[in-house]
């Protein structure tokens, strides 16, 4: 079937095709899915464009225009096979459609086609009557493609029945766009596998590492970094410093972070910064990942920690000397011979407050100078 498209429709078709073919052009899958949904709403004149995404035995619905109650009901009625990544439904009719779609290799659909595939029983479906119709999905249409381990569905609909832009030619237009949808889905699956392999590799490394996207948002923190964060009382400040290091390298504006000092640019594609907390000093090194590993200029941040060896655990210090959590931090800082000014900067408090904390810690430990703190804590551990 030939489709007569006006100039504005041709422009929208080009924009939709470009969006479908650019899954790696943004910081992550959701950015691509939102861009595609926007382009599809513009092209077909639909009210809603919703991605249906199987993830580890569950299903996620991504739709900015649908209300929360509709999305919750869809989640309740849908599931996914953990190993195969196939979509399934608790509604028997919809589940039967999933099976027939797979057997017949149907990749584009509209409401009349789905009704025929279900022997004209579509309006008996619980999902249709309790979620889709009340949620404003009428005259629906869309794509559903499958690659090993992953299915992907784009489901579109109109707020009111009878409102279509191409009147009976939607399937032909969807067929024209199908190769681009397939290509985008395939690239996304391949990139997801690459990211999973990268995460598994990073988790085997002893150096604390974090991977962020081009917008500075975290993609993955490895096991060594997770362990380090468990030991750092100021973990939120540390995470903020890591995010700032990634954002600074990509040229994104990052909020100034206390005690983060940019020392120098090591290479045009790398940067080094420092962070001091009450318990440790950190050197953060950020560098771009090769595009073959992470499309979209992913950033790898390594964390080198110089931490004084704790002579005894924080709970033991608290129990033995009656220190508050804040005083434990100050005691650790004194153990590392930090000055009151350094303690103030590390904890984000005034120098006067740091002095008062220091005086209380010295008093509770029964010592007269910060030089004696490490020895006192060590003796309490024996």
Structure in words:
By secondary structure, the protein is an alpha+beta fold. The protein folds into three domains: 7-195, Transcription factor LuxR-like, autoinducer-binding domain (Beta-Lactamase, 2-Layer Sandwich); 205-307, 2-Layer Sandwich (Beta-Lactamase), CATH 3.30.450.20; 314-381, Arc Repressor Mutant, subunit A (Orthogonal Bundle), CATH 1.10.10.10. It has 14 helices and 13 strands. The chain has helices at 7-20, 29-44, 68-77, 92-104, 111-117, 126-132, 170-203, 223-231, 235-250, 314-321, 325-335, 340-347, 351-365, 373-381, and strands at residues 48-55, 58-62, 78-80, 87-89, 108-110, 138-147, 150-158, 209-212, 218-221, 260-267, 270-276, 280-288, 299-307. The strands form three sheets. A six-stranded antiparallel sheet has the order 9-8-13-12-11-10, with helices on both faces. A five-stranded antiparallel sheet has the order 2-1-7-6-5, with helices on both faces. Strand 1 (48-55) and strand 2 form a beta hairpin. Helix 11 crosses helix 14.
CATH top level of the largest domain is Alpha Beta
What is the typical, i.e. mean, pLDDT? 84
* Annotated CATH homologous superfamily of the largest domain: Transcription factor LuxR-like, autoinducer-binding domain
Based on CA atoms alone, the radius of gyration comes out at 28 Å
CATH topology of the largest domain: Beta-Lactamase
Order of helices and strands: HHEEHEEHEHHEEHEEHHEEEEHHHHH
Largest sheet: 6 strands, antiparallel
């Amino acid at each position: 079937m030939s489709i007569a498209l006006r100039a504005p429709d041709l422009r929208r078709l080009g924009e939709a095709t470009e969006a479908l073919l650019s899954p790696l052009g943004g910081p992550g899958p959701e950015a691509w899915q939102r861009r595609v949904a926007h382009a599809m709403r513009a092209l077909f004149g639909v009210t809603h464009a919703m991605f249906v995404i199987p993830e580890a035995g569950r299903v996620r619905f991504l739709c900015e225009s649908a209300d929360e109650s509709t999305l919750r009901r869809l989640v309740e009625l849908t599931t996914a096979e953990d190993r195969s990544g196939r979509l399934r439904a608790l509604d028997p009719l919809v589940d039967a459609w999933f099976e027939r779609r797979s057997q017949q290799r149907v990749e584009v659909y509209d409401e009349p086609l789905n009704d025929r595939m279900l022997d004209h029983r579509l309006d008996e479906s619980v999902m249709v009557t309790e979620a889709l119709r009340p949620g404003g999905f009428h005259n629906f249409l869309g794509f559903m493609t499958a690659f090993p381990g992953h299915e992907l569905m784009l489901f579109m609909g109109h707020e009111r029945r009878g409102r279509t832009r191409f009147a009976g030619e939607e399937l032909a237009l969807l067929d024209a766009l199908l190769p681009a949808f397939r290509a985008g889905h395939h690239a996304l699956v391949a990139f997801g596998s690459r990211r999973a392999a990268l995460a598994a590799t990073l988790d085997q490394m002893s150096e604390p590492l974090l991977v962020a996207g081009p917008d500075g948002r975290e993609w993955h923190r490895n096991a060594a970094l997770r362990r380090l964060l468990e030991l750092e009382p100021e973990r939120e400040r540390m995470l903020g410093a890591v995010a700032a290091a990634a954002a600074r390298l990509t040229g994104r504006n990052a909020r100034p972070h206390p005690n983060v000092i940019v020392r120098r640019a090591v290479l045009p594609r790398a940067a080094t910064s420092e962070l001091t907390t009450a318990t440790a000093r950190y050197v953060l090194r950020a560098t771009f990942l090769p595009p073959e590993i992470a499309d979209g200029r992913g950033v790898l941040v390594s964390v080198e920690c110089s931490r004084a060896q704790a002579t005894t655990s924080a709970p033991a210090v608290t129990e033995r000397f009656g220190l508050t959590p804040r005083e434990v931090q100050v005691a650790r800082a004194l153990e590392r011979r930090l000055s009151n000014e350094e303690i103030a900067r590390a904890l984000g408090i005034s120098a006067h407050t740091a002095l008062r904390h220091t005086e209380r810690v010295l008093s509770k430990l029964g010592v007269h100078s910060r030089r004696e703190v490490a020895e006192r804590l060590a003796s309490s551990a024996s």
